[in-house]
Amino acid sequence: MPTPPRTDSLAELNDAVTTCRRCPRLVAWREEVATDPPRRYREDGYWARPLPGFGDPRARLVVVGLAPAAHGGNRTGRMFTGDRSGDWLYGALHRAGYANQGTSEHLDDGLRLRDAYVTAVVRCAPPANKPTPAERDTCLETWLVPELELLGSARVLLALGSFAWDGALRALRGMGHPTPRPRPVFAHGAEAEVGPYLLLGSYHVSQQNTFTGKLTREMLDAVFARGRDLAGAAG
To answer: Which end of the chain has less neighbouring CB within 10 Å, N or C?
Structure first.
């Protein structure tokens, strides 16, 4: 098991995340895509490093995604920023009262979150958006577990997609909260109590889901409304 960095604050952990080079395949990929970006991004300087979490350190609601997008977070340096998945996520956070604006375009765009925090199981953009099991485990054990431990007010983990649902369960188990039996199954709107946390599922805000109507704005808003209710009840 990787040894997590010894940090006393979320800020220190986030600084440490950005220098991680533990997964050679992910390091190579995140840097490779930055050297030959699509035409529309050729004038942009790419972040091309692992991404820290983003949001309110006192958040009761923590949104857990899969990994940064190659030309989204890997380009901009913020989770779910600079792509259409981010438009959906931060639009929903804004409508739910968690964000001061509904767009997230770059690091200096003025976006602020209140009572919400956005993170991911894997912190580097993976090829084909598919981390290996070893990469998943290295990343969540090194970063997600200590991050959740430092987010002391967190009560609800909103998992975007089955990968994040599984990763959240693994991270909670690493924190000493055994997975319930039978193992909670992911579904949109699924809920599970794991130790002091409530795990809530949502379809991922990927274009594959939003373009096809598998995930609608109304469905996403309903999940965030439920998340707020659960966080309030557990807080």
So the answer is: N
